[in-house]
Amino acid sequence: MLQRNELREKIKDYMGTIRLSGFESRMAYKLLNDLGSYADRASIDRMGNVIATFNGTDPEAPSLMIFAHMDVIGFIVSRIEPDGFLRFERVGGISEKIVQGIAVMVGSESGTFYPGMIGAKAYHGQLAEEKSKVDPFSSLFIDIGAGSERQVNELGIYVGCPVTFAPNYVELLGDRIAGAYIDDAAGMANLVQIASILNERRPRCSVHLVGTVMEEFNARGAMMAARTANTDMAICLLGPGAGDTPDQRGVNNVVLGGGPAVTLMNFHGKGTLNGNIAHQGMYQRLRKVAEDRGIPLQRSAARGALSDTAYLQLEGLGIPCLDMGTPDRYSHSPMETCDLGDLEKVGLLVAAFIDSIDRDFNLNRY
């Protein structure tokens, strides 16, 4: 079983792996190798999802899919200026407030990535009214040091090429880490942790550990993975944002260091009327397992966001779903933060939940 220091190295590795939504191949083959070293079989489906299966000892027990998304937010090159600057469009939810002056990596059509930055107008050159104004994405640009469009093209960079935040990893006080793309490197690290446990202790139910594609783009990768795996139920490893910073106090009761967190309701009301209300049978089982194992369980309910479960739950005859994972701070920024103690407990709790599933588990909502 993976120990905390091994989890630290695994999440650090995954955080540093370039994997923009729609361009996840580097991460997919890495995760395939990591999960495949434990599973009975592992493969990448046509959509690009990684699916590693552990055969259960009881064919009558419902199968379970545990998944985390491999992709990350970022940008796509939308125009190359004659003088070599790059215009871009967002991929996923990114605020204008956090991007100016940050380091990025710009991909070429051959797969090579080049460092650059999103330009930020010098403070001394700003007018008084500009100093408190957030510039729209339409006015921003990326500088890779090129002097012409031709020089950019010679690198293999054209319209449609991917851009991500530059890899970043920082160890804070205690067991807390920060950097780009903890979302959802944390969930993928848990997948490997769970795989190491299942390799030692065979479950009664068959388990599919899955890395999904394009969650940040359209939240439908897990839906396609479920069609391949033909699962009966699913857990999404994606923790809620913590409400313990000065700007978030009062939003929820979730804190870093407080243990795994389960999302009992999420709902994206901004143009997408979808979300997930936790399957009560799964939640009550998770709650009991946590209590029996002495693992603290935090609870969240929120609007304004959703996960892959929003669409996954509507597959087949209906797939019972639960969202849970490691709480984080500063989500969708270049410096997300989490607690490694929480991360470790998520994997232990999910493994214990898997161990509790037998043929008598009721998949119906009530």
How would you characterize this protein structure?
The protein is of the alpha+beta class and 366 residues long. The protein has 2 domains: 4-72 and 181-356, Zn peptidases (Aminopeptidase, 3-Layer(aba) Sandwich), CATH 3.40.630.10; 74-165, Peptidase M42, domain 2 (Elongation Factor Tu (Ef-tu), domain 3, Beta Barrel). It contains 8 helices and 18 strands. It has helices spanning 4-15, 25-36, 149-154, 182-200, 221-229, 280-293, 309-312, 340-356, and strands spanning 41-44, 50-54, 64-69, 74-80, 86-91, 103-107, 113-118, 142-143, 162-165, 169-171, 176-179, 207-212, 233-237, 261-268, 274-277, 298-303, 321-325, 336-339. The strands form 3 sheets. Strands 1, 2, 3, 12, 13, 14, 15, 16 and 17 form a 9-stranded mixed beta sheet that branches. The chain is globular and about 65 Å long. The mean pLDDT is 95.
List keywords for this structure.
alpha+beta; six-stranded antiparallel sheet; Elongation Factor Tu (Ef-tu), domain 3; Aminopeptidase; 18 strands
